[in-house]
Structure formats: structure tokens, C-alpha cells
Amino acid sequence: MPTIEDNKMRLSLKRDAVDYSYDIIFGEYLFPQIADDLLHNPLGKKYAIITDSNVEKLYAGSLKDALARAGLSAMVFSFEAGEPNKDIYFCADKVDEMSQNGFGRDAAIIALGGGVVGDMAGFIASIFNRGIPYIQVPTTVLAQADSSIGGKTAVNTRYGKNLIGAFYHPKKVYIDVSTLKTLSDRDYICGLAETIKHGMLGDKDFFDFLLKNYDADKKKDPAFWLNIAKNNCRIKGQIVEIDPDEKGIRAYLNYGHTIGHAVEQLSLDMFANGKHKNFLSHGEAVSIGMMVVGEISWSLGYLPDEDLATLEKLLKHVGLPVRVPSDMDVEDIIQITLKDKKARDGMARYVLPIKKGKMHDFGGAYTTYVAPQIVREAIKARREF
Ligand SMILES: NC(=O)c1ccc[n+]([C@@H]2O[C@H](COP(=O)([O-])OP(=O)(O)OC[C@H]3O[C@@H](n4cnc5c(N)ncnc54)[C@H](O)[C@@H]3O)[C@@H](O)[C@H]2O)c1
Ligand SMILES: [Zn+2]
After folding, report:
1. 275-314 as b/e: b if 16+ CB within 10 A
2. Which of 70, 153, 240, 309 could form a disulfide with 123 if both were Cys (CB 3.0 to 4.6 A apart)?
3. Could you tell me the pLDDT band of residue 344, with boundaries at 50, 70 and 90?
């Protein structure tokens, strides 16, 4: 169980007698604290601040200045923002830029941005000079709720989401909710999908809290976001501590993701082909995925009517989409799910909710194979009209 005291949570992680536990710090305006911590407990001789084009303009300068004031050497490396750029080629470019600028084994990385930056910067940290330390400074609701903790790093390939990556834990995570103030309305909402996922898979009270307390005005309330981030990290942390390498119960965190990733990938393809003006965000795709998988669980007799209806109510309440876009081909979705990392013998594996706050444990297997016909029917039932 992660220990929480005031604005600090300790995630305890050990593998083969190696302790890679780390602290998650919660607060506002944390850049001076990050600089002070790195001054007293250095992770490297110099720091590569890896970020994206949007976050660079907003926050990279002030983080670099805070480090400079503490006498620390840092340089900013930036990607073009957006999921379509989450690939290995951009990572290779950054690796080269870092080498050109004298970064080597004694350097460390600061991942400053949303989930895309966190996944890419974490991946670069895992491969640069065979691995250098990094810290996460997440700046979106999604990254503060989910992607910055747990040590999953990855990039996409043309064959699917997150197909290249590594488990590589950060040395520390700084959740600075003051950075959320500049988020677009859409990105606030997208981040709530993984938050609702955490309520649905492990904490009924947190789910009910969101239903009762969330409204659009909360955007301006840092105390609300601190509370949300702490609850998310507690729920996810508990699972990651038990199963850091996803051999069992950690699969629960993939709730909605087999369908979600398929819908997200198709949406990115349609955007690249000019068929769509925009693409679904990860959070939006996960929201749709959770509804379809809720439907699968309902059709198998596990999830009661009222829990499926409450899930839909909360997703809609925060403004997330709950239906598969009408121009997405059902068979295309099915085909992508069958290429999922966990699919076998023509069937994809799913984690299924049995009620608000609880997943089916399938006798300790945590996941179950679901026949394509059942998945097909669920997608059809949850398509846009
Ligand atoms: N590693 C994991 O465990 C894990 C878990 C969940 C999601 N993910 C990954 O996270 C990614 C989605 O993350 P995301 O939703 O944060 O997307 P993102 O990183 O693309 O951020 C969304 C948008 O917000 C902008 N932005 C970021 N911070 C901002 C700020 N403070 N103010 C204004 N704009 C800001 C970004 O530039 C971007 O345009 C997906 O690639 C998904 O696969 C990973
Ligand atoms: Zn996710």
C-alpha cells in the first residue's frame, strides 16, 4: 500500500532485491523545489528537459531558469506536440541532439509535459547510453492521473499503439497542479477518462465523488486537482506495487484499452489519410473503450444494468464521448484488437468490470478471452447512430 503523508506519496517497488521505489510529490509551483532537490540529490551532471512544442513555450523556460538559479546545467529538447509524433524516429533525433550537445552517461532527463512527452522521454531515458535516470513532471490531467507513474514508457509504430517500449521507472514524480491552468477544456476532460477508469476498477467511493463533485468550474480549483491526483496515484500505485511488471492484476489498468487503442489507432489513421479533421485523444478513445467493454461485461451477465448506466452517466457528465464513431468499420476495430499484445488464437483478452469499483478476477487470471462475435455485438450496440 503506498504511504501518503501530506503532499508526498512513496511507491514501494522491488525486483530481485533491487529497490526502485520512488516518491511522488504533489503541490503547486514546484519548479524551485525540483531545482533544490536536484541540487542536493543530483541525478546527473546536466539535465535534458524533454518537452513538446506547446509546453516548451509555457513552462520549459521557467524550469530551466529555476535549475540555472540553483547552479544546475540544463538544455531544452522539444518535439512537435501531439500523438502522431509519438514515434521512434523523433526519439532517435532527440538522442542524436543530446549526443551532439555533449550529453552522455552522466546526464539525466526531466520529462516535462503530457503523456506523450512522458512516454517518449521515459523511453529515451531507458535507451540513451543504455539507460540514464529521469524524473517525471506531468503537466496534463491525464499524465498526473496515470501515465507519469508506473514506469511504462513507449512509442507507437504503424502497426499499433505503444508497440516499442520498456518498463523503466522514474526516480521521482512531481505533480504540479498549477501547470493545469493553461490546459484546453478538451484536455481537462480527456484526462478524466483514466480517472474514471481508476474509480471503476478499484474505488466505488472515488467514482461517486466524481459524479457528485465534478463540474466545469472545478477547472479553476487547484485543491480539487490535488485531491484527484492523490486518489489516482493511490489507486494506481496500490496495483503497481503488487504487480510492477504486469504479470497479473496490473492488467486491470488496461480496462477499456484493447478497444480504446483500436479506436484511437483508427482515428489517427483517418486523420493521417485526411478522412478526419482531428483525431480522438487517448482519453476519449479509452472512454469509448470502457463503454464497449462495459457492454461486453453486461452481455456476459457480469455487469448489472444499473452499473453500466452509471458508468455512461459519469462519462457523459464530464463531457467524454461514449459511442464509437459511426464511420469506423466494426471489422477494422475487431482486426486491431486481435493484433493486441495479449491476443491469442483469434481472441483478444479483456478485463471486465462486475460492478462500480470492482473487476472480475477470473480466479486469479484477471483477464478472459472474449470471442470476436461478442465484441462485435457490443461495438454495434455502442456505435454512434
Ligand atoms: N505510460 C502510461 O502508463 C500511460 C498511461 C496512460 C496514457 N499514456 C499515454 O499518454 C498519452 C496521452 O497523454 P495526454 O493526454 O497528456 O496527451 P499529450 O501529451 O498529447 O497532451 C495533450 C495536449 O496538451 C498539451 N499540453 C500539455 N500540458 C499542457 C499544459 N500544462 N498547458 C497547455 N497545454 C498542455 C500538449 O502539448 C498536447 O497538445 C497517450 O500517448 C497514451 O498512450 C501512457
Ligand atoms: Zn491509457
Report:
1. ebeebbbbbbbbbbbbbbbbbbbbbbebbeeebbebbbeb
2. 153
3. confident
The response to whether residue 56 sits with its C-beta less than 6 Å from ligand 1 reads: no
Q: Which of 140, 161, 176, 182 to mutate to test the pocket of ligand 1 (most atoms within 8 A of CB)?
A: 140
C-alpha 376 chain-centroid distance: 26
Q: Is the CB of 54 under 6 A from ligand 1?
A: yes
Overall average pLDDT of the 208-219 stretch = 91
pLDDT of 347: 87
Q: Cα(257)–Cα(335) distance, rounded to whole angstroms? A: 15
Q: How confident is the model at residue 339 (pLDDT cuts 50, 70, 90)?
A: confident
Full-model pTM: 0.95
Instruction: Give the whole-angstrom CA distance, residue 250 versus residue 228.
Output: 20
> Could you tell me if 52 and 114 are in contact, meaning their C-beta atoms sit under 8 angstroms apart?
yes
Look-up: residue for cell 469506423?
328
Let me know if 226 is exposed, middle or buried by CB neighbors in 10 A (0-12, 13-18, 19+): middle
Q: Which of 28, 29, 54 to mutate to test the pocket of ligand 1 (most atoms within 8 A of CB)?
A: 54
